[in-house]
Design goal:
- The model has no long low-confidence stretch (mean pLDDT 93).
- This protein starts with 11 loop residues before the first helix and ends with a strand.
- The protein has a seven-stranded mixed beta sheet with strand order 4-3-2-5-1-6-7, sandwiched between helices. Strands 8, 9, 10, 11, 12, 13 and 14 form a seven-stranded mixed beta sheet that branches.
- The chain is globular and about 60 Å long.
- It is α/β, with parallel strands linked by helices.
- It has helices at 12-15, 36-47, 104-120, 140-151, 166-175, 194-208, and strands at 24-30, 54-58, 71-76, 90-94, 125-129, 155-160, 179-184, 213-218, 223-225, 234-239, 245-255, 260-265, 275-283, 290-292.
- Helices cover 24% and strands 29% of the residues.
- The chain folds into two domains: 12-184, Rossmann fold (3-Layer(aba) Sandwich), CATH 3.40.50.300; 209-292, Pre-mRNA cleavage complex subunit Clp1, C-terminal domain (Elongation Factor Tu (Ef-tu), domain 3, Beta Barrel).
Length: 294
C-alpha cells in the first residue's frame, strides 16, 4: 500500500493508458497486495489533467487510506486542483466491518450512494479503489459482478499477477457490458502479512480517535440500525439523514432504562445526526485493535 504522500513507482504499462479518453466510473479490481491503491492514486492524478472535477473513492474497508477502517470514503478535488489526497468535499459510508465478507449488502449500498453523490457533485471521472476480496470461495466474484451491475462503470481495470482474475474478467469481456483493461502487478508491490494489516488498522483507528471525548446521547430520539444492542466497545456510526457517516464512536456505557448511550468519539457536534448504525466489531480504546463480534 502506498500512503497518500509517498512517491509511487510507475510501470510503463500505466503510462501507455490513453487517460484522455477515460470518463465515468473507473473500477479497479485485484487481489490483496497487487498495487490497486497505488494505481488508483496514479490514475486520479492523470485524470485531473483532463477533467475539472475528479472523484476518488477509497472502497477498501479493511486497509483504508483516506478514512478509518470499516468505512468507504469519497473525496472530490476542488476544480482545477490536482493534489492527493483531494482537498474538496468528503463523504463516508459505514460498512461496519473490516472485511466485506458477510457485509456485502451494506458495502454495495454504500458504494452506490457514494458514486451517486460524486455524480451529483459534478464529477465527470470517478476512480473507485475496491477491496482485495476476489476469491470466489468467499463470494469475491459475485461481489465484484454485483458492483459492476450496480455502478455501471465505463472501465474495469484488472491488476493480476498471472490469470487469477480471469474467472471474473472473462465474463465481463464476453458480455461487452464494460471495457476491461488488464494491467500487470508492479514489481515494487510488497506483500503484507496478517499482523501488518492488523497494525495498519490499529494505527488508522488511533489517528482517527485522537482527541476524542465521551458524548452522551439519547438513542430513542434517533433511528438505530439494526437494533439498539449497545455492547461495550462496539463501533458505531453516527449518520445524517442521507445515510452518510458524520463520525464514528465507541460504546462506553449504555442505560436501557433511560435510553442513553455514552460514545467515545472525535465528533465535536451532534448537529445533523439522524441515526446510529451499529458495526460488527469492537475497538479497544487503548490499543485500538479490532475484534469481530460473534
Amino acid at each position: 500500500m502506498t500512503e497518500p504522500n509517498h512517491p509511487i513507482d510507475i510501470p510503463p504499462s500505466w503510462e501507455r493508458i490513453t487517460v484522455s479518453a477515460l470518463s465515468g466510473t473507473l473500477l479497479i479490481v485485484g487481489a490483496a497486495d497487487t498495487g490497486k491503491s497505488t494505481f488508483a492514486r496514479y490514475l486520479y492524478g492523470r485524470l485531473c489533467e483532463y477533467h475539472e472535477r475528479v472523484a476518488f473513492i477509497d472502497g477498501d474497508v479493511g486497509q483504508a487510506t483516506l478514512g478509518p477502517p470499516t468505512t468507504m470514503t469519497l473525496v472530490l478535488n476542488e476544480p482545477g486542483q490536482c493534489v492527493f489526497p483531494p482537498a474538496g468535499p468528503r463523504f463516508r459510508a459505514f460498512v461496519g466491518s473490516v472485511s466485506p465478507r458477510a457485509h456485502m449488502i451494506p458495502l454495495l449500498l454504500g458504494a452506490h450512494r457514494l458514486v451517486q453523490k460524486a455524480r451529483d457533485m459534478g464529477a465527470t471521472a470517478i476512480v473507485f479503489d475496491t477491496t482485495g476480496l476476489v476469491d470466489p470461495a468467499y463470494g469475491g466474484c459475485e461481489l465484484k459482478w454485483a458492483k459492476v451491475d450496480l455502478l455501471r462503470p465505463s472501465v474495469v481495470f484488472g491488476l493480476q499477477r498471472r490469470s487469477e482474475l480471469e474467472y471474473l474478467l472473462l465474463p465481463l469481456r464476453l458480455s461487452r457490458r464494460v471495457r476491461v483493461i488488464d494491467l500487470p502487478v508492479s514489481q515494487a508491490v510488497q506483500r503484507r502479512d496478517v499482523p501488518t494489516r492488523q497494525e495498519h488498522r490499529a494505527n488508522s483507528f488511533r489517528r482517527y480517535f485522537e482527541g476524542a471525548k465521551a458524548v452522551e446521547l439519547n438513542w430513542r430520539n434517533l433511528a438505530v440500525f439494526p437494533v439498539p444492542i449497545f455492547t461495550p466497545l462496539r463501533l458505531v456510526a453516527l449518520e445524517d439523514s442521507a445515510g452518510f457517516t458524520l463520525g464514528l464512536g465507541i460504546v462506553m456505557t449504555s442505560d436501557r432504562v433511560s435510553g442513553t448511550v455514552s460514545l467515545y468519539t472525535p465528533l465535536t457536534s451532534l448537529e445533523g445526526v439522524n441515526a446510529l448504525r451499529l458495526g460488527n466489531i469492537t475497538i479497544d480504546p487503548h490499543t485500538f485493535r479490532d475484534t469481530r463480534l460473534l
